[in-house]
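Handout, section B. The chain below has 139 residues.
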Amino acid sequence: MSWFVFALFSAVFAAATAVLGRLGVKDVNSNLATAIRTVVVLVFAWGIVFATGAQQELGKLSRGTVGFLIASGLATGISWLFYFRALQLGTASKVAPVDRFSVVLTVVFAAVFLGERLSWGVAAGAALVTAGTILIALG
């Protein structure tokens, strides 16, 4: 399968995350809800690692790779804490699209920090996502 198919599956499950998360944070502290969700993700991810034998690669990881993965994990955790609190305070139909503004930020960060080229198509798409985010947030 191509990256695009995996990305589409990611989008479907991200949408499910928003709806299920909104239902889940209804009567619970958003930080507790995030912690419960994180435990589920942790068990699920390690289950896949062991089921596929990927744990054998642990010794091959460089310190730099581990450092970036730890930083990415911290960013994910912080994002989830804010996301669940936003879901608790707002509607899923507004929170999720604003959260997906990360698409635009990723394009900018990838250009600045990774040196990825910014084509006119990508720039136009990012502008449209920005406009859509604003329309949905204010609508």
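Note. The two ends are 37 Å apart (CA to CA). Compare this with the example in section A.
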